[in-house]
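User: My instructor asked us to take a sequence, write out its structure as tokens, and then describe one feature of it. I'm not sure where to start. Here is the sequence I was given:
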Amino acid sequence: IRWILDRGFPVACHPEDKDHRYVGVARDITEQKQAEAELRDSAARFKTIVETVQDGIWAIDAQAVTTFVNPAMAAMLGHTPESMAGSLLFDHMSETNKSRCLELMQRRRMGIAESHDFEFRRKDGTSLWVLLNAAPQYDANGEFTGVLATMTDITARKQNEAASREMNAELEARVAERTRELQARTRELSVSEERL
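Assistant: Let's start with the prediction itself. The structure tokens for your sequence are:
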């Protein structure tokens, strides 16, 4: 299939002339149409990936205003992508984490991309722990324009780690108590043997 773009217009003729004349230009635009189709296909594939991936994708501008979240990221926080559009990054975290986030944003401004654990606050007030991979974004002039981050929900892992620490602390307390009991019993036995 070849795509042709043609343009033409009638040429003024003598009013008594029964012949009609046209001047026109035809241009082969097949390559342009193929490139447009490839671009549409690529955009559709990208949209499918972004909308179906289980990890969250979050983009913010240089002022930490949300410019994009995929459905998975919004769901992790108990929102929809539409309800998060235009919200501040800081609206989704505790006061304690805001200062840490400001420090991390400064690192992005310096061009540092990194991965780390971070705690957000869900819409219902519960904690959302994520493994966050953040990369600074720049425009064609090299100006910082924001951050693009992917996030994996690690809340269950963090809860398991906390439960494990709690269990270890409880076991250590029991061992310490049992050790004290055994030491006391050993002293009692030593005193009893000396009396015999």
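For the description part of your assignment, you could build on this observation: The mean pLDDT is 88. Try explaining in your own words what that tells you about the chain.
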